Amino acid sequence: MTAAPGPGPTDVDRSDPVCRAWVDLAVAAVEADARRSADTHLLVYPLPPEWGVELYLKDESTHPTGSLKHRLARSLFLYGLCSGQITEGSTVVEASSGSTAVSEAYFARMLGLPFVAVMPAATSPEKIALIEFHGGRCHLVADAGSVYDEARRIAAESGGHYLDQFTNAERATDWRGNNNIAESIFSQLALERNPLPEWVVVGAGTGGTSATIGRYLRYRRLPTRLAVVDPEGSSFFPGWRDGDPATATGRSSRIEGIGRPRVEPSFVPTIVDRMICVPDAASLAAMRELERTTGRRAGGSTGTNLWGAFQLVAEMVAAGRTGSVVTLLCDGGERYAHTYYSDDWVAGQGLDLLPHTATLQRFAATGEWPAAAG
Ligand SMILES: Cc1ncc(COP(=O)(O)O)c(C=O)c1O
Questions:
Q1: Which end of the chain is flanked by fewer CB atoms within 10 Å, N or C?
Q2: CATH hierarchy code of domain 37-65+170-373
Q3: How many CB atoms neighbour CB 2 within 10 A?
Q4: 317-341 mean pLDDT
Q5: Whole-model pTM?
Q6: What's the pLDDT band for 2 if we cut at 50, 70, 90?
Q7: Any idea where the domains of the chain sit in the sequence?
């Protein structure tokens, strides 16, 4: 005999056609944005052809909101809408170091929803201005570690929804396909000399991008391996190396968008084949090398990616292996004019780029990578 579910009716119908009609319109608007956005380009990084190794950059700075986070923001809004957590008039809240909030503000405005971004007070003025330009409100906190609880509090008090990129990035993104970043990369490589790269190299902020790519590689049974680069002081590298997801260095990263004071829930260590820890000065030296070599300005996390990618290319050259390597150009450099591209700011951080620039110039000339450089 089943126990009665307590006092009151045993059949409750909460369907709300008005609410569903709004969700239908909202989902259609987000999907229309995807259809309006052409796919991001896959750029060839110039390496000497005699090396027999090609290096590609997936240029995510060309998204409407200027970074790879446009994809994540779209997925998080669809996830919230289709889970019944975002409805008409919901205040949408996020804890973000910047890029994600820029993209989420764009979608919130598209849906006519108030958006609040909770971030460390040290976030660059350019990023704060960009979020406000897209109609968002920035809520600054002194202690970077308190962004999660503060975002949750604001969402609860306003009856709104906390998008929570650090928890939901790995589950909101469709890793099987649906033109995710991995599927896009492999389809754009199809006519290349080496269409199945030996490595894909990415950084981790939420861990969502690496999770999507790592799962896709296994789902498609591809031989390609995933390398994750991590800036100095971040928790991902020691956490993965020691198999301890509770690792927390408590240190904020100097490379915006990647590196975290704790191992975030969306980081999936089991799909990472290799990790490389990259000094901040090396990240910025590689970021500037990209501008010298291609004329393109990108952000610091792209420099971190390139440092790791160059090292892996050098290993292939040294071993006489031909093939290809892919990495990401995560966002544009215009956001970092007063920081990474300012010699005064770099000196003020006590960062000496010279030894790393020497490593990069030796690599560009010879394909060699000094053991000391990692
Ligand atoms: C500029 C930049 N690069 C890389 C990343 C890392 O991406 P993910 O969060 O998917 O690990 C981020 C994340 O915020 C970012 O903003």
A1: N
A2: 3.40.50.1100
A3: 4
A4: 95
A5: 0.94
A6: low
A7: 37-65+170-373, 69-167
